[in-house]
Amino acid sequence: MVYISLIADIFHAGHIRLINEGNKYGEVTIGLLTNKACEELNETPLLSYEKRKEVLKSVKGVKIILEQNEASYLNNLKKLKPNYVVHGDDWKNTFQKKYRSEVINFLKDNRGKLIEIPYSADVNPIKLKEQALKNNVGSFSRHQMIKHLIKTKGIIRILEVHNPLSALIVENTKEKVNDIELEFDGFWSSSLTDSTSKGKPDIEAVDISSRIKSIDEIFDVTTKPMIFDGDTGGKPEHLEFTIKSLERVGVGAIIIEDKVGLKKNSLFGNDVFQKQDSVENFSNKITVAKKAQRTDDFLVIARIESLILENGMEDALIRAHEYIKAGADGIMIHSRVKNGLEIIDFITKFRAKEKDAILVVVPTSFNHIPFDEFKNLGVNIVIYANHLLRSAYPNMKQVASEILINGRSLESESKCMPIKEILNLIPGTK
Ligand code: SPV
Ligand code: MG
Questions:
Q1: What confidence tens digit (pLDDT) does each residue in 195-233 have?
Q2: In whole angstroms, what is the distance from residue 221 CA to residue 134 CA?
Q3: Is the CB of 365 under 6 A from ligand 1?
């Protein structure tokens, strides 16, 4: 028996070479990685497990396909006791080398052998996948991706965007950390940064048509999914139309907050007058929003302002359970307490009772808490809500001042990207 472990999301010649090699030694069993196992490898397949299996079933030389439910091969190897495992030699020097060592040790103890074939450098699955995403190939389209990503990854990272250029930064930033390629999972359309970039206060003064036009422009040049900051959601009768418009353009989720009257930004706290809605009214708004959506995939997340307005932990927890009862897919809990104890207290108490509801945090004040800690606490979405606008503004302001002070731009050049770079920034400029 020959065991080959595959994700086989985009099936290519490299897979065929592996399977052909396997057939030289015996009958090939494929351990097809489930979405959970893919997540351990930081991979999010475009295609569902069933679709990937369907393709593999028709491939010559594949005898059996079964689930590999973990990134580690050990459970399947113990069950199957194969004589051979076949793999590309690319895993020797990546974070997957620990799985390789496990396989080698197991086979040594069980009189098996690892066959490694040169990795096919002519096929670049990452490039293929990027291309596929750009062309909207795959089982999931943009409006479904927020729900799908939470289901497969457990937790996702979202970064604020306020125009197409900032969205392209979020779209394309990738960093290898401890051998794992990291990127943001999607965009946050922030009411704070969308209105600020338009020179208006964050008081629902930018109307929904303008907000949606901005999203359209962002979606023209990107592929990642978006969560929309819906402020209070307005009147329930109006919210119905907002939800339908958001779904139509391809937004995956809306977050609405339980405030009434003239909405002010939460980070002001009680320095300005802000009032929380009643549980009954806001629950009704949630129910209306859920009824308005046309697809199964759109998420309505209820944002609780009890901690921001110092109405207490008890109030926040009661509201969380009531809002979920009213139909909310999840809760966003906001807090201004810098040391993070309040937010951790809420998360722990909430998760003790609500196992499945989506939980969202916005670590602007408690910004020392790392993503992985939120992951361990059972958070599902971490939104970095305003950082691209806040980081761009100081530099622009300083350059404007310097040009006045110096009567020329020479002194500011080091703060500016080279002209050549900006000319080549956007593909298709030339
Ligand atoms: C936003 O980004 O507009 C938000 C989050 O609503 S916060 O500004 O922290 O209230
Ligand atoms: Mg907002």
A1: 999 999 999 999 999 999 999 999 999 999 999 999 999
A2: 9
A3: no
